[in-house]
């Protein structure tokens, strides 16, 4: 209807009228977050339900806002434990608002909840780290039986919803601490997994764990595509995924059956491949407390630093992918590079009471190995191959949008917005914003005219990604809109 909704730092939400020649802000709602609770303000969107705009905040509230006036209808405190809060956008499905504890590297226990859109009351909650005695708890094998309390597995990005089955497909993040598996031996369910959850009851229908006992921070919270396509001569209801670990996965979404995995990233050395029968990494040993997917490739206490590829950010991370149903191509943008990690003494501090549940609990240190660049890959669900690829001299935090007119558009941390041919990925156009881009582009139309919009702004990635030419890039908060 010609309105855009945008969220900014501290969970502030804006309603913008795009119908005229001069877009204007209709209202702004500030939830007045507690800055003492939030260290690094991040927000990833809002939801619409009827005549309400729904947001969830980093200090753990779910808030309903009147779409017409911008006034609050109600608010409910859902996250109550130290270190819990929301960053993933809420999702409105049927008569449920889906929200997740999204603080992925904090020492908390991950969960997903269904909330009533009428009054904010919590309808159900599913914990992504099982308590002792619950299904999956046998995969947390520390002798003290305390690791599950700070186990992580946060779902810090919004998932995908299947309207036919009322299933919510959502990916989970790394176990905590991410770099010290000796603190939490075992496969650590349901970390690094895809969950199929019944949106009405909160029951888990099935799961698929990409990287059991992860020690490389390969969260799998990113986009999962719901698509019905032929596989091996048979039409299959699939859910597919650009894994942060460097592989593109195809699964049967009716039961979680593994179909295939294909490497899409250029340099990958953390495993020798994916088992074509089980979908598990080569080198996986069932029942072993500490996995080592390739000799010398797992961090250990006192073992010094290790280098692994792809980068701990991916590959494709949290940002959205895009799909062209006519070409049967799935597009994913991300990183090309490697990381260095080393275990530290965080675990000793936790056991000594110097760190408490809810603190950031990494279990190690991390750095980028050399310059981190970026790419876009086009994976064909028709051929099961990467059909084309575009390489860029800077990394991608934005994701992509595809149009029916043959474009794939994105933004990069060097400030460029680019559009590409949807078959070859050849670059067709670029625009320099002068600031970092860490938000996804969208396509929309008003009065019959199509636009591409992207939010730009953020701190420099020069040091973290070894991109010296971006060191002096300016911090800015700007909405750019381009007409097609």
List keywords for this structure.
2 helices, Methanol Dehydrogenase, Chain A, four-stranded antiparallel sheet, mainly beta, five-stranded antiparallel sheet, 484 residues
Protein architecture, described:
This protein has 484 residues and is an all-beta fold. It has a single domain (26-483), classed as 8 Propeller (Methanol Dehydrogenase, Chain A), CATH 2.140.10.10. It is globular. The mean pLDDT is 94. It has two helices and 31 strands. A hairpin with a 4-residue loop joins β21 (322-324) and β22 (329-343). Strands 20, 21, 22, 23 and 24 form a five-stranded antiparallel beta sheet that branches. It has a four-stranded antiparallel beta sheet with strand order 4-5-6-7, with no helix packed on it. Strands 8-9-10-11 form a four-stranded antiparallel beta sheet, with no helix packed on it.
The CATH class, by name, is Mainly Beta
Mean pLDDT: 94
Count of DSSP strands:
31
CATH topology: Methanol Dehydrogenase, Chain A
The biggest sheet amounts to: 5 strands, antiparallel
Question: What is the annotated CATH architecture?
Answer: 8 Propeller
Q: Considering the protein shown, what is the CATH homologous superfamily?
A: Quinoprotein alcohol dehydrogenase-like superfamily
Task: Outline the fold blueprint.
Blueprint: E1 3-7, E2 13-17, E3 24-29, E4 47-49, E5 52-56, E6 61-66, E7 72-77, E8 91-93, E9 96-100, E10 111-115, E11 122-127, E12 160-162, E13 167-171, E14 193-198, E15 204-209, E16 224-231, E17 234-242, E18 247-252, E19 258-263, E20 306-308, E21 322-324, E22 329-343, H1 346-351, E23 364-380, E24 385-392, E25 400-402, E26 407-411, E27 416-421, E28 427-432, E29 442-446, E30 449-456, H2 462-465, E31 478-483
Antiparallel strand pairs: 1-2, 2-3, 4-5, 5-6, 6-7, 8-9, 9-10, 10-11, 12-13, 13-14, 14-15, 16-17, 17-18, 18-19, 20-22, 21-22, 22-23, 23-24, 25-26, 26-27, 27-28, 29-30, 30-31
């Amino acid at each position: 209807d010609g309105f855009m909704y945008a969220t900014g730092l501290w969970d502030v939400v804006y309603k913008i009228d795009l119908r005229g020649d001069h877009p204007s802000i209709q209202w702004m709602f500030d939830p007045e977050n507690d800055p003492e609770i939030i260290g690094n303000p991040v927000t990833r969107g809002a939801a619409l339900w009827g005549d309400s705009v729904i947001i969830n905040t980093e200090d753990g509230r779910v808030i309903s806002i009147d779409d017409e006036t911008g006034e609050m209808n109600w608010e409910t405190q859902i996250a109550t434990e130290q270190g819990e809060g929301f960053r993933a956008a809420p999702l409105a499905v049927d008569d449920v608002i889906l929200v997740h504890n999204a603080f992925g590297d904090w020492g908390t226990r991950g969960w997903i909840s269904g909330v009533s859109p009428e009054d904010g009351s919590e309808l159900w909650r599913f914990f992504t780290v099982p308590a002792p005695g619950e299904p999956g708890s046998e995969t947390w094998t520390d002798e003290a039986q305390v690791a599950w309390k700070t186990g992580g597995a946060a779902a810090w990005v919004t998932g995908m919803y299947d309207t036919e089955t009322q299933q919510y497909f959502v990916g989970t993040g790394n176990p905590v601490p991410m770099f010290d598996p000796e603190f939490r031996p075992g496969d650590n369910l349901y970390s690094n997994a895809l969950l199929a959850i019944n949106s009405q009851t909160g029951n888990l229908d099935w799961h698929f764990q990409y990287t059991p006992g992860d020690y490389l921070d390969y969260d799998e919270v990113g986009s999962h595509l719901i698509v019905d396509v032929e596989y091996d001569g048979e039409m299959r209801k699939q859910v597919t995924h650009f894994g942060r670990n460097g592989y593109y996965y195809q699964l049967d979404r009716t039961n979680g059956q593994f179909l295939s995995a294909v490497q899409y990233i250029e340099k990958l050395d953390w495993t020798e491949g994916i088992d074509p029968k089980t979908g598990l990494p080569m080198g996986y040993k069932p029942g072993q407390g500490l996995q080592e997917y390739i000799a010398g490739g797992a961090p250990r206490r006192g073992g010094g630093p290790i280098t692994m590829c792809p980068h701990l950010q991916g590959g494709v991370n949290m940002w959205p992918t895009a799909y062209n149903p006519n070409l049967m191509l799935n597009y994913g943008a991300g990183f090309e590079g490697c990381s260095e990690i080393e275990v530290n003494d965080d675990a000793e501090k936790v056991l000594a009471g110097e760190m408490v549940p809810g603190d950031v609990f990494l279990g190690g240190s991390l750095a980028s190995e050399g310059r981190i660049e970026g790419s876009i890959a086009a994976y064909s669900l028709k051929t099961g191959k990467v059909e084309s690829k575009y390489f860029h001299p800077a990394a991608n935090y934005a994701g992509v949008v595809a149009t029916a007119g043959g474009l794939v558009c994105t933004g990069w941390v060097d400030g460029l917005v680019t559009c590409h041919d949807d078959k070859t990925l050849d670059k067709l156009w670029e625009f320099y914003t002068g600031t970092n881009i860490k938000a996804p582009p969208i396509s929309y139309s008003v009065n019959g005219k199509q636009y591409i919009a992207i939010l730009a702004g953020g701190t420099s990635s020069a040091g973290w990604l070894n991109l010296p030419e971006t060191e002096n890039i300016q911090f800015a908060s700007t909405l750019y809109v381009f007409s097609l």
